[in-house]
Write a structure and sequence with these properties.
6 helices, elongated, transmembrane helix, transport, cell inner membrane, DctQ
């Protein structure tokens, strides 16, 4: 395994870990809200839970993609074989990479201008908007990297990692 491969796999894994931390943050805010009600304290968790949900969603995209856990409509791909299949896979992954690169550019632009114009969330927390939007932009960039990585993998004739890993995800550990 090359150093680049290890670095990319580590990036995807840690992005997934950070997404999991934000899922725990959602649970913690909901639990705090429930406990607060028992003691007559109103805790507004809507904003923090929403920001955490956005971060968990976008930061988890690359890891779930590489693990084959995204929903894929593979009817057309399943009907093809050999070079035609490789071409269809390249087209779909390349189209996804281009779309995510476009999204990531504009998400980064949104973060930048949120910072420049000092946009603040309108809720009780008054969080600078560039902070939660940064997770969205970073998640988009990491997914773009994962898609380009997969494009190169398919181009070199390797089995797409999302296919290889999807069999493990679907069958589960220990299933024979």
């Amino acid at each position: 395994m090359t150093a680049v491969r290890r670095a990319l796999d580590t990036l995807y894994l840690w992005s997934g870990y950070v997404a999991a931390v934000f899922l725990v943050a959602i649970a913690a805010t909901i639990i705090a809200q429930i406990v607060g009600r028992f003691f007559g304290v109103a805790i507004d968790s809507t904003e923090s839970a929403g920001f955490s949900m956005a971060a968990a969603t976008f930061l988890g995209l690359a890891h779930t993609f590489k693990q084959g856990a995204h929903i894929r409509v593979s009817l057309l791909v399943g009907l093809t074989k050999g070079r035609v299949r490789q071409a269809v896979e390249l087209w779909s992954v390349g189209f996804g990479a281009a779309g995510m690169a476009y999204f990531s550019y504009w998400a980064g632009d949104l973060v930048y201008y949120s910072y420049v114009f000092h946009e603040i969330s309108p809720g009780l927390l008054a969080v600078p908007f560039w902070i939660p939007r940064l997770a969205m932009a970073l998640g988009g960039v990491i997914l773009t990297i994962a898609l380009v990585d997969e494009f190169i993998r398919i181009l070199t004739g390797a089995v797409p990692s999302y296919e290889a890993n999807a069999e493990t995800v679907l069958s589960g550990p220990g299933d024979e």
